[in-house]
Amino acid sequence: MVPKLFQSSRFKAFKKSETSELQKGLVSQYAYERIDAVKRTIAAMTVGKDVSSLFPDVLKNLATRDITLKKLVYLYLINYAKTHPDLCILAVNTFVKDSEEYNPTLRALAIRTMGCIRVNKIIGYLADPLRKALKDEHPYVRKAAAVCVVKMYDLDREYCASNGFIEQLQALVSDPNPVVVANAVRSLAEIHDQDPEKGYFNVVYTMTDRLMVALSECNEWGRITILNSLARFRTSDIKEAEYVCERVVPQFQHANSGVVLSAVKVIMVHIPLFSSDFTDFLYKKMAPPLLTLLSTDSEIQYVALRNINLILQKRPSIFDVKTRVFFCKYNDPLYIKMEKLKIITMLACDENINETISELRAYVSEVELEFVKQTIKCLGDVALKVPSVINDCISIFLEIYELNISYMVQEVTVVMETVLRKYPQKIDLLLPYLSRVIEELGDPRARSSMAWILGEFSHVIPTSSKLLSEMISTMADEDLQIQLALLTAVVKLSLMNGKGNDEELVQKVLNYAINQSSNQDLRDRAFAYQRLLTPENVRKAQKIVCCEKPSVSYNNNLPEALLDALLCEITTLASVYHKLPESFIGQGKFGADAIQRRAVEELNIEEANVHEAIEKGANVENLLDLDFTDPGATSASDSPITSAQPQSGSNSAMDLFMAFEAPSTNNAEPVKARSATDDLLGL
Amino acid sequence: MASAIFVLNLKGKVIISRDYRADIPMSVVEKFLPLKSEVEEEQGFSTPCLTHEGINYIYIHHNDVYLLALSKMNSDAMEMLVFLRKMADVFIDYFKELQEESIRDNFVLVYELLDEIMDFGFPQTTETKILQEYITQTSNTVKKHAPPPIAMTNAISWRSEGIHYRKNEVFLDVIESVNLIAAADGTVIQSEILGKVRLKCYLSGMPELRLGLNDKVLFEAAGRTIKGNTVEMEDVKFHQCVRLARFENDRTISFIPPDGEFDLMSYRMSSNVRPLIWVECESIVHSGSRIEFMVKAKAQFKKRCIANNVQIIIPVPEDADSPRFQTSNGHVQYAPEQAAMVWNIKKFAGGKEFFMRAEMGLPSVKNEDIQVQKKRPVQLKFAIPYFTTSGIQVRYLKITEPKLNYHAMPWVRYVTQNGTEYSIRQ
To answer: Which residues of B touch A65 (CB under 8 A)?
Structure first.
């Protein structure tokens, strides 16, 4: 809903004196005065003043032969077309007349603007001029008409489909003019997607020839459009696919990053078909242009990096072992640095590990907190991925422990948990630091990691029971995550060291968990342990609790099926979010409908306000003075066509929609990839 | 594709907007800034594409405005972001500067442009020169019949017919920007050359141009050798006027140029570049109360070349004060707002070495972890005319205009400058 405040400022009453001054200008006998007045009206409209009472006066200027003035009035109309379309119907005769003009600019302008008036009634007036415009001799008009068809389709599918407009649009795909072709395929693609079963736009091989010609003649935006249509082309014939890809390759050299990435998309869609030779050739062609995208504006770089991430998962060897190009620049925005770190991790391998590690070491002393944290995580991942580098990583971690800056120490502790799972023998190196580190840990993640380390290695850490008892002393105030970790840790402690030295500690924790804690998970787990720890079960308990852990390995890749789906979505938002479109564009039709409803509702409210303003205004009688032949069109108080949904209904619809928030499709972190029993007991 | 385009100021207030599709409530724009800061809070940074309740926010930031596109579909993110950048360029071409004020001063023109560059959320054209032919600022000149420029829909969408110059000339600038990150010990961690060939075309009619470079791939393919070096470009990008298929076939760069100034091509080489200007910086803290810097700068390029307007930006502790500088050349300024000193040298000849000494006071209350001082790199700015790092050369620029048959002169200049990142880590 529009907040009160916003509404009131938007519909601020326009000062009387100003209005009358503008009014005078609008009906002046001099063209330049009228132009000036319309301009000032538009300016007033933009800063949120309500100038709808001037509507009839502005409209009087529409019949002019002066193209500058006409354009201005159209601009005014477009802005009000949204809020009160029925007023715009008043102008419809002029539109129809303009669409017959000698000057192509005017014809195109009329068709374009008419399409912007979102009211069903317009369709009747639009049909004939649009039909003519689709066959207009001037490409500028045809290009506007091609888009107008999808505008009409949006208003009334039935009408548009049953009156031959779609067929006419389909015919434009073989128009001699490349820009017209581009707009036609774009409109068709959209119409097709709204109702895929009708099959309005199936790209077939015979069509690709025409598209290829247009591709090499089109402006940059047309090229993107045509490349996207080529990405819709599906074939099982390798020859056909090869032909398409070969002819798309030159587009890698285009200066527009959008063209380059769209060309990549066409290739990626078809690449599973090809022999390894041709695949190699294509990837080799693709790599340098992808890297060049990294020297563009940051936002564009960001989209490129997200897409490179996907392609790299499919084809890890695409850039050989070139990590350097992905090294972070000091002036890179944070969101770029984070993406680059991910890619550096993905590329890490024995060949480039030395430069990778020394680069990551340099990042640790950078300024931005989030970046440093991510770097530390990245170092841990690299250590999992490339075993030969574990000692270097540990020594960097120990350096950080030396420095003793708390947020870094905490992050290292979290990462250490994972690293130690894979390389348990490295615990020895850590021993001297533990008691000091423990004081720096505030973050729950870090504290529970520390608890895990103390429990798991209680037999090697001489001070483990002392340190754990310190942590337990504040157990009641800790997060659940830490409490669970502590519980498991003391059980491990007692089972590993045997002898019952730590019996007291275990009892204390169990006692707290069973009798004092109100959390079910904690209590249930405590009960389970309690039963395990009875003397007759101790051996079994040892077997279960101190068992061999499944090993962890680095794998941050998306699931195969998701990856393949996303590779067909390159350049789109889906490829940026790494989520399927269904998960963020609202649950199918339902979400989209709810949004649409809200849009309509908002319009209606605005409209109601404006109607009120007009009715109050002194100009109402002027409306009747206008010389319009269509009597039905003159009633200014026509009820809006699209009726408002009851407010409560729509709200609940929105709520429901929100409940459908996209489920995260991100892969589980490596740490969490433990076996089920492991999870159950929080080992 | 976009449902609506907004220009917002930094406070999130809408300056101007255009609703192209009427399929989303325009009020969702109020969510933009809160959403952005929420994301920032959550993960420490924001990204150029955000999604919330089925609405996608795609935006760029320029001076004191955001350009924002909204969409409820799975739009082409790359296309939208490039489009927003190009839209900013169009505004800059029209108003010289894109900022809140220039938008406010030109509402009408902005509406007119928004109407022309996009239709129903589909980008149409962003070629300023063509737009300027029929969307003009001189609002009072009333043109009775202004047909749309043929170029709008033509295969040659960047040049109009009937251009005439008394003197036909082409100016060609080869500009190389060097990005370099080096470690303090002199090893180059990352380096790349981003080259650009910029043309200023003052040619009549529809001239046909062909550009010849000392391109290694071209000469190897032709099996020829030429005097001097050839260069190997890792990747090349062309202005849309260049025939890409022809380049793919035989590496010929042929085109009909737009009128006036434009970037014909850009290229990238990630070959190892030796630092052109090297800076060594040593600092000593004396008894905790003052810090002393000894800086040496060395020009490592050809002796007969001269670097102009060299700027060496050296980070200093944030709490330092009362600076004193001594230098053999140029002058030094203290820039407390970036916690750095800036050493300016007007002319820096190849092979020369300059020195600078600086001393600054440190506050008596000492920062506990001085060794934890976050390290910032030394950054450099410079321009070296008549010099390219890559050794690229323009061998010829052939100009033919089949109808007018005039003789035109090409002029070529070269310059090497710093890229967005030229830094030496400390």
So the answer is: 144
